[in-house]
Specification:
single chain; mainly alpha; 2 domains; about 55% helix
Amino acid sequence: MNPITRLSLVDRTDAELSIVAQCRLLKVARSSLYWRPAAVSEDDLPPCVTGVAARIGSGLLGAQEDGRGSIRTAI
């Protein structure tokens, strides 16, 4: 069973078995139960990342529309 599935088994409302005990039994880190990915806006990314992403995206869209090209030629 993968860690995400095991985390979904934790019952936060269980009065008999604490979250600490449940995480220990399921062999998952308790911190991963509370972790949420942070949203990243395009403004926070460096220009080099947004430029590369735009070039790859436009190349892939063109390849899909006309049926030619590949990721390798888009880069």
